[in-house]
Specification:
The complex is a heterodimer. Chain A is mainly alpha-helical. Chain A has helices spanning 2-19, 21-50, 57-71, 86-90, 99-110, 118-122, 130-139, 149-183, 194-221, 240-258, 263-281, 294-321. Chain B is mainly beta. Chain B has one helix at 4-14; strands spanning 30-36, 41-46, 52-58, 62-67, 73-78, 85-89, 95-99, 105-113, 119-126, 131-138, 144-150, 156-163, 166-171, 193-198, 203-208, 216-223, 229-235, 246-249, 256-257, 274-277, 283-288, 293-298, 304-309, 313-319, 322-327, 331-333, 342-344, 348-356. In chain B, strand 16 and strand 17 form a beta hairpin. Classes of the chains: A mainly alpha, B mainly beta.
Chain lengths: 334, 359
């Protein structure tokens, strides 16, 4: 009898895990990726502590892995990443005013002692923190060699340490509280209904697709008369196109989870994602430098178009299954 | 200005002596346009507690509304490029009359009354000439069209009474023509401005944004009792630019832009939907339905002090001790007031603006 109860419990747990998109989004999408972010970010800090040379292969590899992990969660802009501006502390981009290089130059020029402690560093410009700041320190021809060498080393280590501790806090918040909030909606909860919880996940998907189309691809595209290749995300480390692929791959996973109960819709969405990913893989323009030429521009525009198609598919087919209507006010405001 | 003859005509036009006043109505506190799930468009009056007092059908999507300062009637404006403004009796929700813009004009969705309630002023598009117009209607003569004058720019969107004889207009700067719907026709040259006009149309003062913010369209206005203006903008440039969305201005001064380099300004997605001062002028709130955010700024230090995340939030007003917001998901709430209003209307999508008839 006891065994039977246990196995029934297990069975029902298994059924729930399979059929409940929120549980499976948490267990297969969000929590493992947050853990990966936390793990790779700690590894980055450890490697930086050993070797802070900007050209160090070990350091650059560790940086790349942690940055990959961030891009894979960069669409999850709610809850723990929004507390205390953590998402901006991890990733200050787009930076249309160039605050990141300005803030880093100022620190390096004056050897500002604020970076010696975590508390001090928390009070410097938020644009001097996170992965994009680290990219300048490791890859920018000027900022990778600016300032006193010892100070530059300390700054690399501080930025890495700061990334690691922010990543750990985000991961911890997800584990300790936020996963439960999302999993157990209720009248007094942050999410009042299961529907609201699903809508949060849906919204993150849509926002991520929009960011990929409008910012990651749209910013370097600029306009036909004025292409802006230097606006490409993380171009100094050659990661612009890679970010599009990483983000699409991760969002594909979340979309599949949210569409679990609707296999037909899921199939169409995944096919759209695959088309966009295939185009990205064959684009052969890692930092979108080609946007300045008509031919290169056409290739990036067609990738952008495919990302928009994914978004349209999700808005027209997935949204109704989750009880989401397009924003009445946001659609075409005044 | 009011002659005895005009005064009498005014009384007669209301059809009743003495004229009914706001005190006769169940005192609606808030107004907003909405769409029902069945697609019907409404103008809705709400009580202090956020209960619906009247809900009157309007012929198309609404936008903002204006309350007559004395008579219990309101004007519900069509959303641009709409062609109706309905006069609604707040006691019954009945439509008293419908204003149609003159040939070659359409409404932008906002309007206001003069202090004495005699004239209604509406923002309009003279679209063949691509010229912004303020239409003047005589509330004492059944809202007869009296005259019109230049708004001081293209695309006048919001208009407020700044003081007894002075108007302030947000000229958004964007040219549109009904033949091409809501398409933006002049982005390469657009320029928005904030314009102060005398009631006879004389231009008193005009302010533009700096060159690097040329693509920021000043759209919505709020004011403090002492005449400081707050405005919300909508960025027409590339997505992701770090640009201010809220500003303030006092006559004779330069514009102040709020938010500084606080990265959360980016959470507004370049789009201010509604703007409202707190009654003391210390705080100014802005909503963004695109960013699903409501942000509050300290109007003195220009710092962003609070942010609330709300799906499809757009309407915003100060009422009952705090900012009240509405959403396209049917919510009406005080996001930052403990035990404040918090209602959900499953059948309604609230439209862009919420108008408080008292504080």
């Amino acid at each position: 009898m006891k065994h039977l109860c246990v196995s029934l419990l297990l069975m029902s747990a298994a059924t729930t895990a399979q059929s409940d998109p929120i549980d499976s989004a948490l267990d297969t999408h969000i929590l493992p990726r947050m853990e990966e972010l936390s793990f790779t970010s700690r590894r980055l800090a450890d490697v930086a502590a050993q070797d802070c040379t900007p050209t160090s292969a070990d350091l650059r590899t560790a940086y790349g892995k942690a940055f990959d992990a961030w891009i894979a969660v960069s669409h999850l802009r709610f809850g723990p990443t929004e507390t205390d501006n953590r998402a901006f502390a991890m990733a200050y981009w787009p930076d249309s005013k160039g605050f990141t290089p300005k803030a880093l130059s100022a620190l390096l020029r004056t050897s500002d002692p604020a970076i010696q402690t975590a508390e001090g560093f928390a009070n410097v410009s938020i644009a001097a923190r996170g992965f994009y700041a680290m990219e300048f320190l490791l890859y920018d021809p000027d900022l990778s060699v600016a300032g006193a060498p010892d100070y530059h080393c300390q700054l690399v280590q501080r930025v890495a340490q700061d990334i690691a501790s922010t990543a750990e806090t985000i991961h911890q918040d997800w584990n300790d509280t936020y996963a439960t909030l999302l999993r157990t909606p209720g009248p007094d909860g942050l999410y009042r209904t299961e529907q609201e919880a699903k809508q949060e996940l849906y919204k993150s998907l849509l926002t991520g697709l929009q960011l990929t189309a409008d910012m990651r691809l749209g910013r370097p595209l600029g306009s036909f008369d004025r292409p802006r290749p230097k606006r490409a995300e993380a171009r100094r480390s050659g990661r612009s196109l890679r970010h599009v692929e990483l983000a699409l791959t991760s969002m594909r996973d979340l979309a599949a989870t949210l569409a679990t109960d609707h296999p037909d819709i899921a199939a169409r969405i995944l096919q759209d994602f695959d088309q966009a990913l295939e185009r990205a893989r064959t684009l052969d323009d890692p930092v979108f430098a080609g946007v300045a030429s008509p031919k290169g521009r056409f290739k990036v525009e067609s990738l952008q178009q495919l990302v928009q198609e994914v978004r349209t598919r999700i808005e027209t087919e997935l949204a109704p299954t989750l009880g989401v209507s397009a924003g009445f006010n946001s659609l075409d405001g005044d | 200005m009011t002659t005895r003859r005009a005064f009498l005509t005014g009384l007669l036009a209301t059809g009743l002596l003495p004229a009914p006043s706001w005190a006769d109505v169940g005192n609606p506190a808030l107004l907003a346009a909405a769409r029902r799930q069945n697609g019907e468009h409404l103008i809705v009056g709400l009580s202090d507690q956020g209960h619906i007092q009247f809900a009157s059908p309007i012929p198309g999507r609404g936008h903002a509304a204006a309350a007559h300062p004395k008579r219990p009637e309101i004007l519900a404006f069509a959303r641009r490029p709409g062609r109706f403004a309905d006069v609604i009796d707040c006691r019954t929700g009945a439509r008293l009359s419908r204003l149609l813009p003159p040939e070659g004009r359409h409404f932008y969705g906002h309007g206001c009354f003069t202090q004495d309630g005699r004239y209604l002023l509406t923002t309009e598009n003279d679209y063949e000439a691509a010229r912004g117009v303020i239409g003047v209607w005589d509330a004492a003569k059944g809202y007869a069209r009296v005259t019109e004058f230049d708004s001081g720019g293209i695309g006048p969107h919001d208009v407020l009474l700044h003081s007894d004889q002075i108007l302030v207009v947000a000229n958004g700067g964007i040219e549109t023509h009904p033949d091409s719907g809501r398409a933006k026709l002049n982005l390469p040259t657009m320029r928005s401005n904030l314009t102060y006009l005398r009631l006879d149309g004389a231009l008193l003062e005009q302010h533009e944004l700096p060159d690097d913010l040329r693509l920021n369209s000043i759209r919505h206005l709020t004011r403090t009792q002492d005449g400081r203006i707050g405005f919300a903008m909508q960025w027409q440039g590339a997505a992701g630019e770090m640009v201010p969305i809220v500003g303030t201005h006092a006559r004779g001064e330069r514009m102040t832009l709020l938010g500084g380099d606080d990265p959360r300004v980016l959470n507004l997605s370049g789009y201010g939907g509604s703007v409202s001062f707190s009654p003391d002028g210390a705080r100014i709130g802005v909503t963004s339905p695109r960013g699903n955010a409501l942000q509050l700024y300290d109007s003195r230090t220009a710092a962003l002090i609070e942010e609330h995340r709300l799906q499809d939030v757009c309407g915003l007003a100060w009422f009952g001790g705090g900012f009240v917001a509405t959403t396209g998901r049917g919510r009406l709430l005080h996001p930052a007031v403990r035990d404040g209003i918090n209602r959900e209307f499953a059948d309604l999508a609230w439209d862009n603006h919420l108008i408080a008839l008292r504080v």
